[in-house]
Specification:
Number of helices: 6
Shape: globular
Order of helices and strands: HHHEEEEEHEEEEEHEEEEEEEEEEEEH
Helix content: 10-25%
Distance between the termini: 159 Å
Strand order of the largest sheet: 10-9-14-6-5-1-11
Structural class: alpha+beta
C-alpha cells in the first residue's frame, strides 16, 4: 500500500483552519438604559444634571497687574519676621467719662528750624529755640511740627480732665493749674527736646501765686517733684536764640490728647516769677505744700466700681484729693476736718453720665451717702462751676 503524505499546501490550510477555530469570541457589553423621567419637572432636572460642569478657574490667585510698590500695603519679602503679639490680649474696656470731658487741646504748626512762640487761649505762652526738637534717634527735625497745648486752670477743668493735686506720698497739695505741652510731626511721630535745650513757659497773670515746687506726671495721677540735680543749667533760652519775632506757620485746632512724662526746672535769670523752663515735654504742673490744722480720716459711703471716681475738693485752697476705693465706700486719709469741702462723684455707665455732689460742713462727724443722678455733660459742667 502507498503511504499518505501531507503536502505543504494541505498542511498550511490545516493550520489556518485550526487557528481560526481556536480564536476567542469577543464579549458583548450590554449597558442598562438610563431611566427616563416620568414628569416634566423630573425631565428638566435630569437634563440639568446631565449638563457638563464649568471648568474651575485655576489662576484666581494671580494678579491682573503688578501692585504699585508705593502703595500702603505690606510687602512680605521685606518683613523678616512677624511682629510679636502682646503677651496678654484683653477686650477693649468701656469708655470713661474723662475720655469725653478731657479739655480740648490747641495745636500750632511751627517751623522747628526757626525760633517759635505760641500763645494759648488762656494766656499761656510757649517759646522754643531753633532746632530744639529732635526725634527718638536724636536727629534734628526739619519738617513742620505741631505743638499741642492744653490748659487746665479752673476747678471744673481740673476735675473733668481727671487731674489731682497730691504729692508722691499722697499728701494733699495746692495747684494753680495743669498744662500739657507736646510736639509731633505731621505723621504723628512724637518729638522730644534735644540735649541742653528747654522749652520756656509763661503762665497767665492770674496764675502767678509765688514760688511753687515743680512736678511732673505721666498720667496726671502720680506727681513727683523734680530732683535738684535734674534741673537744666545751661539750656539755651528762647531769648538767646531768637532772631526777633515768632515763627508760627498755621493756626490752632482743637482735639483731646493724652500725656507723657516730663522734667521741669525754674527759669534761671528770668525775672518773671511765672516763667518756667522744661527739659522735657509732657504734663506740667506747679504744686505747693498745704498743711492745715486738724487732720482726720473720712469715708464716703458709695457703691464702688470701676466706672466711678470720687474726689474731695477744697475750693478755696485749690486742692483735689482722690478717694481710695474700699468695701464700704471711698476713703480719704489725713484731710483737714475743719475746712469746708465738697465731695464730687462722677460715673459713666452704659453710655450715660452720672453726677453726685455732697457738701461737707466743717467738723462734720459723718458723711452722707452719695446719691448719683443721671445728667448731661452740659449740666455737669454747670454744676461744677458752682464750686468756686
Amino acid at each position: 500500500m502507498r503511504p499518505f503524505r501531507l503536502t505543504p499546501v494541505l498542511l498550511g490550510g490545516l493550520l489556518l483552519a485550526t487557528a481560526g477555530g481556536c480564536q476567542r469570541e469577543s464579549a458583548t457589553r450590554t449597558e442598562a438604559a438610563a431611566p427616563r423621567p416620568s414628569t416634566l419637572t423630573d425631565e428638566t432636572a435630569w437634563a440639568d444634571s446631565a449638563a457638563p460642569l464649568p471648568a474651575s478657574k485655576r489662576d484666581w490667585h494671580r494678579l491682573a497687574r503688578r501692585t504699585n510698590a508705593n502703595a500702603p500695603l505690606i510687602r512680605y519679602r521685606a518683613v523678616r519676621r512677624p511682629a510679636a503679639l502682646a503677651a496678654e490680649l484683653s477686650a477693649p474696656s468701656e469708655a470713661r467719662l474723662f475720655d469725653l470731658t478731657l479739655k480740648a487741646s490747641e495745636f500750632f504748626r511751627i517751623d522747628p528750624t526757626q525760633p517759635a512762640e505760641v500763645r494759648g487761649r488762656e494766656g499761656t505762652v510757649i517759646r522754643l529755640a531753633a532746632n530744639a526738637l529732635v526725634d527718638q534717634q536724636q536727629r534734628p527735625v526739619q519738617e513742620p511740627v505741631w505743638v499741642e497745648l492744653k490748659e487746665c486752670f479752673t476747678l471744673p477743668e481740673l476735675l473733668l480732665s481727671d487731674c489731682i493735686s497730691v504729692g508722691a506720698g499722697g499728701e494733699p497739695m495746692q495747684t494753680g493749674g495743669v498744662l500739657l505741652v507736646r510736639a509731633t510731626t505731621g505723621h504723628g511721630q512724637a518729638l522730644r527736646l534735644a540735649s541742653g535745650y528747654a522749652v520756656e513757659l509763661e503762665l497767665p497773670d492770674e496764675q502767678r501765686r509765688g514760688a511753687h515746687q515743680l512736678y511732673h506726671s505721666p498720667d496726671r495721677q502720680h506727681w513727683a517733684a523734680l530732683p535738684v540735680e535734674a534741673q537744666p543749667e545751661s539750656g539755651p533760652a528762647y531769648a538767646q536764640a531768637s532772631t526777633g519775632g515768632s515763627s508760627i506757620i498755621g493756626a490752632a485746632a482743637e482735639s483731646s490728647a493724652t500725656g507723657s512724662s516730663n522734667l521741669l526746672s525754674s527759669a534761671a535769670g528770668v525775672p518773671a516769677e511765672n516763667a518756667l523752663r522744661s527739659a522735657e515735654l509732657g504734663w506740667l504742673t506747679c504744686l505747693r505744700s498745704w498743711h492745715p490744722a486738724g487732720e482726720a480720716a473720712l469715708v464716703v459711703p458709695a457703691e464702688v466700681d470701676e466706672h466711678t471716681s470720687v474726689r474731695l475738693v477744697y475750693p478755696e485752697a485749690g486742692v483735689i484729693i482722690p478717694g481710695t476705693p474700699q468695701a464700704d465706700g471711698y476713703a480719704f486719709a489725713g484731710v483737714p476736718a475743719q475746712l469746708r469741702a465738697v465731695v464730687v462723684g462722677l460715673r459713666y455707665f452704659n453710655g450715660s453720665a452720672y453726677l453726685a455732689v455732697q457738701e461737707l460742713q466743717p467738723g462734720a462727724a459723718e458723711v452722707p451717702a452719695l446719691e448719683f443722678r443721671e445728667a448731661e455733660l452740659a449740666d455737669i459742667e454747670q454744676a461744677l462751676e458752682q464750686l468756686r
